[in-house]
Amino acid sequence: MQPSGFQARFSWGSPLLTLLLLALLAALLLRVTHRGAATGASRLAAPREAPAAVPQANRAGPDKLCTEENNQIGIYRRVSPSVVSVANKALVRAGFFGFQVYEVPQGAGSGLVWDREGHIISNYHVIHEADALTVTLPDGKSFDARVVGVAPDYDLAVLQIDAPGALLQPILPGTSRNLQVGQNVLAIGNPFGLDTSLSKGIISALGRSISAMTGQKIHDVIQTDAAINPGNSGGPLLDSSGRLIGVSTAILSPSGAYAGVGFAVPVDTVSRVVPQLIEKGHVSRAGLGVQLLPDPVTQRVGVTGVGIFAAPPGSFAAAAGVEGITRTRSGDLVLGDVVTAIDGHPVTCIDDLRTRLEKYKPGETAEVRLERNGRKRAAGIRLTEEQ
User: Is 125 a catalytic residue?
Assistant: First the structure.
């Protein structure tokens, strides 16, 4: 037996001491771990600094579009129902006696709905030499079309289809007199047969001149870099409000496809020509009522201007004292009057003269500057109607 005051002695190698030390170490580790977890939790719960606001335009995603995109989408939805496809077909006879007739596609282009009476505007070159024409609306409905009138010198044509007015959505005409280089434009058409395609660009230049199929110059043409390809011809060129500012008519391209230079007949010309085509089937020009000398003949004698070949007796020009070529007793030809200016604007060739007279209507009076044998004078001449 041991005395009652006995105290147990522990040595470093004692198993009991080892257990006590391990228990103490575990308690310390558990406390450190709990404190670290609490610290981490407090860090996670701490408020973060709010990031800088991202501009709305940069935050656009699949369901958020910028203002310009929404505008373009809206224009396309509003205007595309006014754009049609125009198919040019030739009639080919087959069989031993030629009794079988087939329609063979020989070209296609675009057009636009002008009014609810079924008038469709397109280019003259789109319908040139067509035996049959078909207009297809955006909803896929097709109608045979007849030619109402053509203006080859402006590369414009008016067709008409017998379609219910409810199916026709006329385009909204704008103006082309106040356009500016650099403003945005949109073109809708059927390039390569891909119907109602939209392309975007800017006005690259104004006041261009291009040649129509007749060789005559179309003036004040709009140049654009909006993608215009074969099949776009006759389709609308629109401003950023969706109004018609031109009719796509030609491209400048070595390959025949889009090369960044397209042209459109200005809407002010379209708005002047189309009503005449609908009413009369042709365009009435204001003219001097005289017969003109070809430019090479006038230039050959070293004169600048437009030579008058003859002024018919009783004409307004003859009443104003205009004379054409005369012949001397010896048979020599003497040059008559030469037009050098219209209302102060110089005239150097027949194309200049026609361009200046386009601003007038038949029956109006123009101030014409004339020169004959070195003598210059001005005459007010009442203009007549010419086709």
Answer: yes
